[in-house]
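worker-3 :: picked AAA+ ATPase domain-containing protein
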Amino acid sequence: MEIVISIAAKIAECTVAPFGQWLSYSFHYNSNIENLKNQEEKLQHTQERVIYSVEAALRNGEEIYLDVSKWLTDVDRIIELATRKLREIEEAGTKSSNAACLNLKHRHQLSREAKKMMENITELLKFGNFDRVSYFPASKGKKKTRKMDYMAMESRMMVVKGIMEALGNAEIDKIGLWGMPGVGKSTLMKEIARQAKEEKLFTEVVMTNVTNNPDVRCIQGEIADLLDLQFDQETEKGRANHLQQRLSKGKNILVILDDIWKAFDLQEIGIPSKGCKVVMTSRDRDVLISGMGTQKAIHELKILRKEEAWNLFEEMAGDSVKDWPEVRGIATKIAEKCAGLPIALVTVSKALKNKSLVIWKDALMQLTRLTPEIWSPVDSCIQLSYEHLDGEEAVKSLFLFFAQQGYYISYQDLLRYGFGLGLFLNIYTLKAARNKLESLVSGDSCLLLESPHSSEKFYMHDLVRDVATIIASKNHNMFVMRDDGRQEAWPDVDALNRCEALSIHGGDIHKHPTKMECPKLRFFHVNCKDSRNLKIPDIFFQGMEKLEVLSLRNIQLSSLFPLTKLQTLCLHGCMLGDIHWIGELKTLVILSLAYSDISNLPREIGLLTRLQLLDLSNCSRLRVIPPNVLSSLVNLEELYMQKINVQWGVEGPNNEGINASLAELKELSHLITIEIDIPDANNLPKDFLNEKFERYKICIGNIRDPFLLGEAAFSRMLKLKLNMSFQLDFGIKMLLERIEYLYLDELNTTKSVLYELDREDFRQLKHFHIQNNVNKKLIPELKTQAVTFPILETFVLKDMINLEEIYQGNLPLESFRNLKVLKVENCEKLRFIFSLSIARGLSLLEELNIIRCNNMGAIFVKEEEDGIKDQGDMMLFGRLQTLVLKDLPKLMGFLSTKDSFMTDCTETNSEGNHDLQLSLLHHYDQLRFPSLRKLHLEGLPKIKHVWSKEPQRMLKFQALQDIYVGKCESLTSLFPAWVLGCLGQLKKIEIYDCRVEEIVAAEEGGVGARTLVFPRVTSLNLTNLQRLKWFYKGMHVSKWPMLKEMKIERCEEVEIFASGVMSFEETVEEIQSEMSIKQPLFLVNKRSFPSLETLHIRNMDKLEIIFEKLEGQNSKEPQVSIISRSEIEESEAATHFVSNLSFPSLETLYISNMDSLEIIFGELEGQNGKESQVLIFSGSGIEENGATIHSVSTVRIHSI
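worker-3 :: tokens ->
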């Protein structure tokens, strides 16, 4: 027949052209089909390469070119069409005994379509070789360059890679990094913390500095702050227990302890031996290995290689080194003097940046001649950087005062100390001083570094601090006492006589003199971990007549001798008692009583008319502020009254009450900064808030936790909780024009605040939280065509029970372009979040949480009026890392058309389940989640599938690490088999309260998977899955090389926990009817669970066999004897026996509440070879010898 067709094809070439062309499709049927297959395969390979580049770019924060996105969409569609067409052709051939016998018309049609499709694919292949698929947005360029300066160097990347691999190793809990001072350990730890957060390896990452004089309370406090944990205990031991409970209960917590000088017990701080990962750095390798137990993972950070050191120096020094040969020659010698240490290279290069040739020569000479006090080349480099600090002498003075403080110093403290000392020359207002300070510390000398925890704090490298301390004491008579073995005793009489600044952070603080004779002292600071019991006598300060700044923390102070030159007084956390003497300090311009125990603010404070800053924040016992005290402070610029419990008086000219009225603050014409919470909105006077406030944090209404740690970075914040009709006055409207953080809680209000605002009010808004407005059906439409939220980063909607749409109408695409976090909770009538036109602009979204929205049918919807055709609908959620969809009873899909899900909502059966078979993420050609780490799905009764059963080439979840699925009643399985190949980073699987019959579903019509591998999963939890029978139906082997914890509970249909695949195959062959075969939950081999430490089995009423005929590695491997109670009752000798079972890492076996199971363990052998006898009997009284399980440390058996 084929020969006939071939001859006919030749004849066709000689016939009339149109007819011949028609026939040629039939005659070239086979070649057209084969060409289509080949071209489709080529296109798939090209597509995979482009996808890999796109996803790598998205993870790196880059934007994808529009032509690349469109090409991928087109490829998706043509591959889908080609796959369908080839399947149709295959089916047509199957129905006929011979494909060649198809009628000519059908052959012509299929061949013509195949050729046309092949030509389209060929055209797409031409445009698939992209030189670049992405670009960096302009705003991200600076960050990228900064990273390239140091962390992109090969020697650093290798160490980072090693530590990140160790963090991913379930066998390793403690990791050590050691290296000489200044080599960059702390910088590298910040990079580890950044990557761990960015890649969502851990749910929480905390980093703290230990130092050579560890303060346990301080370390505990820093860790607790980062975990949002509050201590109720006073003792270090009590705080340690509380912290240990928090770290043990937390999931995937990373603790970084930087700069450890000597070994200590982690549990003294509250860090458990297990439950979290700990990374530690030290200068001493032995401290980490012998003292801290990091022998399994210890890394050394060496100095930079010669070429790396020069590249870093050249990059930091700027164009003068690159373009000026004379300078370049000297620069290479100076770079060599920096000895490959990043801290020296960076500080020196930036100090000499854009300097003249003469200065470069002088610098080289200084580095060549070491002074006796500066004992190493690195110290000499730091001294050189100090001497070349740009600006007036104030910069150097601030630097030296900074070095005398603790490891961290806040921006506020630096401002208050510097202003009190008069370091800002010719500046007389705090506003101007703040601007000046910001310009000084924002310089790029790298001597002051921004804290990784807060933009409001700075710190100094210990090498820099050591050099600065030497310079300060030698040249400026500034001394410091610390518990570091250098200066622990009080300075001698001669030193005190010439001392200008003294900071005490430890040492023999309790051996202080009764009276200090310091005639030149201008700055005195005490902050010791044991200073709470220190009581300073009245006459202590008599010899400090020139004192300008006094800062005391956690000290008992009964009175203070009149200090006639005192400018700044900070009594942070002090026990003060009666402070009526405060009125005698008439020169004060800054007064802070924050965290102190005062209950009544003395009237004498009203005498401090020069006061420009008053801080009463966190004075939890403060109840009384007398009338007319605050209004007397006519020069006040900044007022801090967060978290105080004062019952404000009523507004009026003759307020005779106990407390002042807030109306007094209206009389302070210079007040531009205020931080205050006002629980009762009735106390808010009219026109109190106005546009003169430039920096403000104002909380009106009874809001729990009015000011949180994470909000410190916002300088303009307003929180409103209203339970009455509240008329917005003009002042608040003016504040909103520049607001950064807005929180609205409008319980029972008749009219929303938002109705009184113009959309242009939100030009600088970064965080927007609105809740409890029962009357609002939609957030008001735009009154202008301006972009609504151009820089908004966090958007929270909560308890808006009548809200039907967030926005109605069209918004500019840029409206939410910077949005990173979107949370919607308990909005009962909300049907969807955004239209597709807005959703496509959410390219920076990192977290999406939608919870308890009873009417929501889809997260994003397409509408015809959007005017967007399918071909351009691809949505790249390139940054999305967390997706939480919880308690959404009507949710049909992530993306849908509005008409579709509205129709679906009405087509439900009696059980409330829709009839459609679409998956949650069925629009696979339009959705991309390359960075998704956490997927939490709970309470989604209409979802039958998470992923489509058919393989999808573009929908990849290779970054996914945690999956939580619960209360999804219609779900029949979690994974289709094809998706497992995309989940190489998966670490945790938890499924609960679902009706799944299997966890992994086979592809329909495909070949069953022979091996299911979960290479990185460490935790598996299957709870209350009443219909679950097996993990995967059919012949297979499942492997879990890193699984440490497994919990199976209330899966009542499971009868056999695990069986060897070989024995199961034998059973299938022996039994003709597969209906009588009891398939185990897992089919495994001897290497399936090599790392399992904890096995928890509970409430499995039908479970008869835990392990059946598993082949071990050798005769010494563990054996477990299992007896089924039901079979004992029917047969006297029936016993299921487990032979040679291998669990080399098992530590805990927990078995509880299983009616059908009898277990008898005998002669359990541990790792140390010692045998421990654990015997468990059932009511039958039968005892069998049996199980040897290596490493078992705990066996708990209950109610079997």
